[in-house]
Amino acid sequence: METSRRTFIRNASLAVAGTALFSNKLFASAKKIERVGIQLYSVRDAMGKDPQGSLKKLADMGYIHVEHANYINRKFYGYTAKEFKKVLADLSLQMPSGHTVMTAHDWDTAKGDFTDKWKYTIEDAAEVGQRYVISPWLDESLRTDMNGLKRFMEQFNKCGELCKSHGMTFGYHNHNFEFSTMVGDNNLYDFILKNTDPHLVAQQMDIGNMLGAGGIALDLLKKYPGRFELMHVKDEIKSTTGHGMDGYDSTILGQGVMPVKEIVKAARKIGGTSQFIIEQESYQGKDPFDCVKIDLQMMKKWGF
Q1: Residue 11: what pLDDT?
Q2: Environment class of residue 236 by beta-carbon count within 10 Å: exposed (0-12), middle (13-18) or buried (19+)?
Q3: Domain span at 115
Q4: At 115, which CATH number?
Q5: CB of 96 within 8 A of CB of 65?
Q6: What is the number of other CB atoms lying within 10 angstroms of the CB of residue 200?
Q7: Which residue, among 8, 18, 15, 102, has the nearest Cα to 48 in the 3D structure?
Q8: How far apart are CA 263 and CA 273, in angstroms?
Q9: How far is it, in rounded angstroms, from Cα 171 to Cα 67?
Q10: 8 A C-beta contact, residue 159 and residue 115
């Protein structure tokens, strides 16, 4: 049985817890280096058993950039930041971004500062070579609490400042609930984008997670041009497992129902996107490594 990404992140979050718009012209003036990478959750079982061997397989396929989804007790897949940086370097891999859940508990209200635990999180991300620290979850207790949400968005901006002091950028990664949860007259995703400083908080749009909840990637790229520095690139099919998100499972790029080629090209043109990160969470009986190899080939075919 495949592990749900949503369940995985929720459990990780619980363990941890123990609008300014850019004009197209303004964005176009800042040319960014594009990177295609892979979210290591795509090969999560293999990474859990043999991180080095799994990374070598990805490197041999032609991947250069990876994104982690495993930072526990100051270790990446069981390695310290310094150790994991060497593992990556030995395979000519880089890790520009990674997922680590930030909760409201990571801010010490009494001190008016982040907890030591969260400061170490940022320090380790910088040590391993990240350029982006991405939080991929928002606690259920905050989603409809207007005052709590406002405070948390302020914490987002403060984390942006903290990351900036380490030469990095803080960001948020969506799932589905942001589009099905209403905050006043708008959905939660609109609230997040309108209440975070785009100079301090990047957005990593997951184009697949939002589909079943009514989020349309192309519409969002047009509504918030320049706001999506990172993107999780995935395709979706109607779920046959019962474990998908809102009735959909991810699949090999180009084999699902989404206009992925059109989305990534629009992201390149108007979205402000420089990090295109492949993520496939279900495989329809195929080997995960075979899937992500085809995914990379498809991105190259599309000119990335």
Answers
A1: 55
A2: buried
A3: 5-301
A4: 3.20.20.150
A5: yes
A6: 18
A7: 8
A8: 11
A9: 13
A10: no
Type of residue found at 280 = Q
Task: Tally the domains of the chain.
Answer: 1
Q: Could you tell me the two tokens for 74?
A: 């100051």
CA angle 25, 26, 31 (to 5 degrees): 95
Q: How many CA atoms lie within 13 A of 271 on its CB side?
A: 28
CA distances to 17, 42, 97, 120, 253 from 73, rounded to whole Å, are 13, 22, 18, 10, 34
Both structure tokens of 110: 């009494």
Residue with tokens 């391993």: 128
Poorest-pLDDT segment among 20-24, 56-60, 81-85, 149-153: 20-24
Give me the numbers of helices (H) and strands (E) for the chain, helices first please. 12, 16
Of the candidate ranges 4-13, 60-69, 286-295, the one whose mean pLDDT is the lowest: 4-13
Distance CA 108, CA 285 (A): 46
- For 199, the token pair is 């100079």
Whether the predicted pLDDT of 28 surpasses 80? no
The whole-angstrom separation of Cα 16 and Cα 38 is: 24
Supply φ then ψ for residue 219, to 5 degrees: -65, -40
Q: What are phi and psi of 235, to 5 degrees?
A: -115, 160
- State pLDDT tens for residues 55-103: 999 999 999 999 999 999 999 999 999 999 999 999 999 999 999 999 9
| The two structure tokens encoding residue 92 | 């000519």
Residue 242, token pair as written in the block: 């019962």
Q: Distance (Å, rounded) from C-alpha 81 to C-alpha 1?
A: 31
Amino acid at 132: Y
Q: Cα(37)–Cα(39) distance, rounded to whole angstroms?
A: 7
Question: Dihedral, CA atoms, 259, 219, 5, 144, nearest 10 degrees?
Answer: -160
Q: What pTM value is reported for the model?
A: 0.91
